[in-house]
Amino acid sequence: MTATPPTLAALSAKNLYLQPLPPSHTPLPGKENFGRYMLSIPWNNVTGWGQATIEPRRDITVDPLSGVMQYAGTCFEGMKCYKTEEGDLRLFRPSKNFDRLKRSAARLGLPCEWDNDELVSLLAKLVSLESDLVPQYDGGNLYIRPTMIETGEAYGIKASPYASSALLYIVTAVNLGKALYASAEEEGKGIKLDACKEYIRAWPGGTGSYKLGANYGTVMIAKKPDFAMSLWVHTEGGEDYISEAGAMNVFIIKQAEDGALEFITMSLSNGIVLPGITRDSIIELLRKHGANEKDFPLDGMLRNIRVVERDISMSEITSSLADGSLKGMFGCGTGVVVVSIGQIQYDNQMYTIPHNPLVLLLRDTITGMQRGKIEHEWSYKVPEWKGVRAEAAAESKGNDEKAEDLAA
Amino acid sequence: MTATPPTLAALSAKNLYLQPLPPSHTPLPGKENFGRYMLSIPWNNVTGWGQATIEPRRDITVDPLSGVMQYAGTCFEGMKCYKTEEGDLRLFRPSKNFDRLKRSAARLGLPCEWDNDELVSLLAKLVSLESDLVPQYDGGNLYIRPTMIETGEAYGIKASPYASSALLYIVTAVNLGKALYASAEEEGKGIKLDACKEYIRAWPGGTGSYKLGANYGTVMIAKKPDFAMSLWVHTEGGEDYISEAGAMNVFIIKQAEDGALEFITMSLSNGIVLPGITRDSIIELLRKHGANEKDFPLDGMLRNIRVVERDISMSEITSSLADGSLKGMFGCGTGVVVVSIGQIQYDNQMYTIPHNPLVLLLRDTITGMQRGKIEHEWSYKVPEWKGVRAEAAAESKGNDEKAEDLAA
């Protein structure tokens, strides 16, 4: 599953080249909300990873027959950088994202070997340069989009299933927290989903558990205007099962017969659900709390809870709604963090899901960790970087050389 | 399914802008086999289709957060241009390809409305400029790759499922006919396939019947070194069914109990098989011949034949091999045209498929039509274009203006 013989150059943060913004920098119209810089690292199967560069955000230039243009050779991650009340920058479990990017890249035959510490170090420098842009309030953050594309030629029959060259790049965008997050605030309402059977997002043996561009562009047209997103439904043995909603993992909250409150989410075993990092974090926090191993970080979580990973059918949702055992439903992911699901349209009927205050508690816990209000090992503190001063110096003096010296 | 209100500008061949090659033109290293020119036509949802341009082949430049980079917003076609013995250029059913491109584009929310005659006219001009490069022998041709990419921004939650901007471009490559076609010549041997159950190419409700990049990049890693390509196998009700092989449609040739020779290929009904144009052509030729409506173009085709479109299981293949009723198997598509399948590895066993001379007859018929050796309405004769003279004039005199005048 790897295209990288060990003799090729490794990905390294050491020889970073920093190209500062020109003193005259002004963002292009329509691109004002993007981070001003981008990080990119080229790779090819002859020399391995090339020099990492942080430079002013620019277009990507590829051959018309490159893998990304022709055969959807692209995978990505979604991450966020937060600013604490004290003004330092935080990332949330960044190595988890880069592990998943490796897995996605391997699935596409793209380079998938690097030291996450090197990549986190480079990302830390990138976000440090944008520190002034990172909102310092709940819900605001700098959205980070690591992307790996196949730049090598790919058309017709290739002798090797592996890419000959690729580019890993990271761009950012300021997230003022006005979109989905805002609707998430309206607890008691939640978002409205359309259960979609016409388009199937993923299937066993496919790519649903990988964060490939191919999983996203192909289901765009399923979105209906009045709905926040689609709830993906697939049919097996005459039963409709749910998997994800839009690009979120989904949980239902259900009263079990033994008195426990169950948080049920789709298992990863059939490979049609993305192994979400927010999903994983919620499961670990709830499991440890339920098992009395480690208390949930915020007050208010019940003790008699249980996390269950298994399939969830639409008939389970409708019948547990009818008998009152369904106590809530939510989606989670980097974009939305945690958001209540308020309504589901399914088979021409609208189902209203009960509101559960634990959803808000979950969200406040995750966002609290992310913004460093709740101290936790999952929050990665971005170290100060002297390159930021170099950049500032270069910006005022137009002194590129100095920036380069200090960037190392 | 359309993002194009009728008030937007239509795709037009009228105002083509031709940018001739510079007199000093030399191909870049590693790109010598590519056509020297490319055709591109931008589109956006405010003004519609923009000016078509034919210019020296260049890289594509897109925003790092464009739909093609992030969400695999890309679809394509494969076509070929042939040179007849008389020296004129031919395309094979080009409108069929552009109809399929519309369908693929619609599936991705990309622009999908244009007059095929306009696009064929532009393509005809592009290939006219490359006329000197088109091989004039059987198996040689100019491979044509129309591609539509989403250039508009796509990340996070989009309000609309439709692209805001896109680019339709066409590039070409000289195909000397030394690759798969050559192995196809070795009749009696045929290509070797690996029946793959680990990776599933397509499933009902997915995108298997659309020519999306997403269907191709995601299955690259299934390819095993000793095999020409994978035979895609999916399991339903405990039975393994085949769909496509690599990027080809597949037929089996089987002796039916009533004495007819059946050409059986997977039905398009469940949406997991690409509606191939070679497939469609073969079906029509055989059906009309079998029904005594129109004779098969070359001598040697049996009269008592029948085309059947239905599912084909691996157990049908192995059992009809055992009882002798399997008379042959072949793949077809623009790339390979028609190629015998000689061996299939399935469940750790190698099956040898009998050679059938009708496969060669089918290939000779299709390639004969394509190269104009068999006259048929499916062969589109590229009209002469004065822009070619303009281009030549500009090349010798460096006179861009004259080229532009004549290009209209």
Global mean pLDDT of chain A:
91
**Global morphology of chain A:** globular
| CATH homologous superfamily grouping of the largest domain in chain A | D-amino Acid Aminotransferase, subunit A, domain 2
Over the alpha carbons, how many angstroms does the gyration radius of chain A reach? 22 Å
Span from first to last CA of chain A?
A: 33 Å
Number of domains of chain A: 2
Report on the biggest sheet of chain A.
10 strands, mixed
Estimated helix fraction of chain A: 10-25%
Per CATH, what is the topology of the largest domain in chain A?
D-amino Acid Aminotransferase, Chain A, domain 2
Describe this structure in words.
Chains A, B: It comes from Dioszegia hungarica. Chains A, B: Keywords: Amino-acid biosynthesis, Aminotransferase, Branched-chain amino acid biosynthesis, Pyridoxal phosphate, Transferase. Chains A, B: Its cofactor is pyridoxal 5'-phosphate. Chains A, B: Belongs to the class-IV pyridoxal-phosphate-dependent aminotransferase family. The structure is a homodimer of 408-residue chains. Chain A has helices at 67-70, 94-107, 116-129, 180-185, 214-217, 277-290, 314-322, 357-370, 386-397, 400-407; strands at 17-18, 37-44, 48-49, 53-56, 60-62, 74-76, 79-83, 89-92, 141-150, 165-175, 191-196, 229-236, 239-245, 248-255, 261-265, 305-309, 312-313, 326-333, 337-346, 349-352, 379-381. In chain A, strands 1, 2, 3, 4, 6, 7, 8, 9, 10 and 21 form a 10-stranded mixed sheet that branches. In chain A, a hairpin with a 2-residue loop joins strand 19 (337-346) and strand 20 (349-352). With 408 residues, the first copy, chain A, is an alpha+beta fold. In chain A, helix 9 (386-397) runs antiparallel to helix 10 (400-407). Chain A is built from 10 helices and 21 strands. Chains A and B meet through strand 5, helix 1, strand 9, strand 10 and helix 5 of A and strand 5, helix 1, strand 9, strand 10 and helix 5 of B.
